[in-house]
Design a protein that fits this description.
By secondary structure, the chain is mainly alpha-helical. Among the domains are: about 260 residues, Rossmann fold, CATH 3.40.50.1110; about 40 residues; about 80 residues, no CATH class. Helices cover about 55% and strands about 5% of the residues. It has 27 helices and eight strands. The strands form two sheets. Strands 5-4-6-7-8 form a five-stranded parallel β-sheet, with helices on both faces. The protein has a three-stranded antiparallel β-sheet with strand order 1-2-3, with no helix packed on it. A hairpin with a 6-residue loop joins strand 1 and strand 2. The longest helix is centred in the first third of the chain and has 30 residues. The radius of gyration is 31 Å and the shape is globular. The model has no long low-confidence stretch (mean pLDDT about 90).
Length: about 625
């Protein structure tokens, strides 16, 4: 029988326990102190809006969690959405990287704004939130981290367009920010970055690292993020990128599917026909460059099937991996079939239908992966069609807008278009394109060109650029262009009714009653006050748009049952609409009542026409004479 441990043995055991626990206790103490003094960041995905405490916005600092150098960290949209979601709100989150952001246009050129506009037009009486959480230069690690958080914010749908940045995006296997090859280990490292002690340690190490030189900071983000410029096809690093994407996307879709959140994942689009390989392995028997030249030869000979095969293979063998391998689209298709609430949006096939011989090139893409405005509108169209097919949004999809209609109506300004052009020119001037910028005649630039240039080099904010452009058009009585700018601003500020009423007023000046009515509906959705409804009704009555005024008067009556004037105006309009053919009628009583109704609406000239008609038939009609005298006085 063993003897009980002595006091010295017990002490020794406690010393060992304390020795093991002490580092953890010290770390906890350090963590508490750092949090107490306000050191570091939490990196939540959402923070309270600075302009309205009732709304969340994307945290502008959240990307710092994924980049080892803050100089490379990117900032996405801060699109407000309600903290308290009501029954009339349909909420969509968009996840992805620079293509999902809408580079180089941002703002209204992005596919999510095209989608927002079309959904607003289809369902003008609903609050549809399309909140873009995409960031430039990130990949599936960031998308997964965001997906874990969005499930708590009542999404009705999640849209995903991601996959081009698995090699060189933040934490990508070939990037300057790579930290580990195993996705699970990377997730642990990301989790550790939320602790203040880990942030302190990282910042301490950075003190001993040489600061980026001025020339390094002048390099574009593509080059700063690229460590392994040559990743051969099917090499170990290549396969790790594929594995990383499949592991993370499986986790993302599983998470969203388990939360019963309808998810729409898109296939990826690359420039096949009009982009030679960046880096070709000249030692291989059939290099990327060889395949590309064979593709060009086959295309010239109108053997388009063979041409496409060579172009795709050239992209696959291109060792500078800025374009997603075909395996990524294969993973997207396979995963979309594994989960019941995940829906495939075949964007690639949709864009191929709009390209010559189904080979995507410069008619839709600006360089390697980023679409032009036409390309972004088609991506939005692919998502819109799939949402329509699933009928997630309750309402009348019979009023769905078609793509051609969206092309005509989407409020993208000349400045937005030019700014995108200038940004791509600056991008292509550097690595890996090295295309010199053509000489620009700055002396003869138009004002929109000057504004776009200032916007592209960040001398102006987008709001400042739009204000200058609006004033330019309005002062020159270019009201249609001014309306386009005003409506563009409503997409940037979708929760501020004054921008909608401003645009609606311009639409009224242009006699575009349908657009004015749509914009006024959006304003009233945001501010359902009787005062705004009264203002809208009066605007329509003044322009003889009586049928359009009627719903706003009814809105007032619902809100203020004691408003007798609105009741009388609505009654007058209903009577007028019921007897629109009464002008030729011989019923003088009806004609007199019609005149009285127009007089109530302030339409003296119209009332007088009807009264003269009555008096022509009955010169002694007392009621008609009384009303006519009232007009004359």
């Amino acid at each position: 029988m063993s003897s009980p441990p002595t006091i010295s043995q017990q002490r020794a055991r406690w010393f060992k326990i304390i020795a093991v626990l002490l580092p953890f206790l010290l770390l906890l103490l350090l963590e508490g102190v750092l949090r107490l003094i306000g050191y570091g960041n939490d990196y939540p995905l959402f923070v309270t809006s600075e302009t309205d405490v009732d709304y969340w916005v994307m945290n502008p600092q959240v990307s710092e969690k994924y980049f080892s150098q803050n100089a490379n960290a990117t900032v996405g949209y801060q699109e407000p959405f309600l903290k308290s979601k009501d029954d009339n709100t349909f909420r969509i989150f968009v996840l992805g990287a620079s293509t999902a952001v809408g580079y180089p246009y941002l703002h209204n050129g992005s596919f999510h704004r095209w989608l927002q506009y079309r959904l607003n037009r289809t369902f003008p009486d609903q609050n549809i939130e399309v909140i873009n959480l995409s960031l430039t230069a990130v990949n599936s690690y960031t998308v997964l981290d965001f997906a874990k958080q969005v499930v708590d914010y009542q999404p009705d749908a999640v849209l995903i367009y991601a996959g081009h940045n698995e090699y060189y995006g933040a934490l990508g296997v070939g990037s300057t920010t790579a930290v580990a090859s195993d996705p699970t280990l990377v997730q642990l490292i990301l989790k550790s970055r939320e602790f203040r002690a880990a942030q302190l340690l990282t910042n301490a190490f950075s003190v001993f690292q040489p600061a980026p030189s001025k020339s390094e900071l002048q390099e574009n983000l593509m080059k700063r993020m690229t460590a392994e410029q040559s990743i051969p096809y099917e090499s170990d690093l290549y396969q790790r990128g594929i594995q990383q994407y499949e592991t993370n996307m499986t986790a993302i879709l599983s998470l969203l599917d388990e939360a019963d959140i309808p998810t729409f994942i898109s296939t990826l689009v690359s420039n096949e026909r009009d982009l030679p390989p960046f880096i070709s392995d000249s030692t291989s028997e059939k290099s990327a460059e060889d395949h590309y030249q064979s593709g060009l030869d086959a295309y010239r000979q109108e053997d388009f099937t063979t041409a496409k095969q060579h172009f795709v293979q050239a992209k696959e063998l291109d060792m500078l991996r800025f374009r997603a391998p075909e395996a990524m689209n294969g993973i997207i298709r396979e995963l979309s079939e594994q989960f019941s609430d995940v829906h495939l949006v075949d964007t690639r096939s949709h864009l191929e239908t709009k390209t010559p011989q189904s080979i995507i090139g410069n008619e839709l893409l600006l360089e390697h992966v980023h679409p032009n405005l036409l390309g972004y509108s088609l991506i939005a169209d692919a998502f819109y069609r799939k949402l329509q097919e699933q009928k997630l949004i309750s309402g009348d999809w019979a009023e769905a807008s078609n793509w051609a209609q969206a092309q005509r109506e989407m409020p993208i300004t000349e400045v937005d278009s030019l700014k995108g052009t200038y940004e791509v020119m600056m991008l292509k001037e550097g690595w890996p394109f090295y295309e010199p910028i053509a000489d620009v005649d700055t002396a003869n630039r138009t004002l929109p060109e000057a504004i776009a240039g200032a916007l592209a080099v960040q001398q102006l904010s987008w709001d400042e650029a739009m204000e200058r452009l609006y004033q330019h058009y309005y002062q020159n009585q270019q009201l249609a262009q001014a309306l386009n700018v005003a409506e563009a601003v409503t997409l940037e500020h979708p929760h501020e009714p004054q921008f909608f009423t401003k645009a609606a007023g311009l639409a009224m000046e242009l006699d575009s009653l349908d657009k004015a009515d749509y914009l006024f509906q959006r304003a009233l959705l945001l501010d359902p006050s009787p005062a705004l409804a009264r203002k809208i009704a009066i605007n329509f009555i003044k322009t003889n748009a009586l049928e359009e005024a009627l719903p706003y008067l009814r809105h007032i009556m619902e809100q203020e049952s004691t408003d007798l004037l609105s009741f009388r105006l609505a009654e007058a309009i209903e009577s007028i609409l019921a007897f629109t053919e009464a002008k030729r009628s011989d019923d003088t009583e009806k004609l007199t009542q019609l005149a009285a109704n127009y007089l109530l609406l302030g339409k003296q000239d119209t009332a007088e026409v009807y009264l003269r008609d009555v008096l022509a038939q009955e010169p002694a009609n007392e009621e008609a004479l009384k009303l006519l005298k009232q007009i004359q006085n």
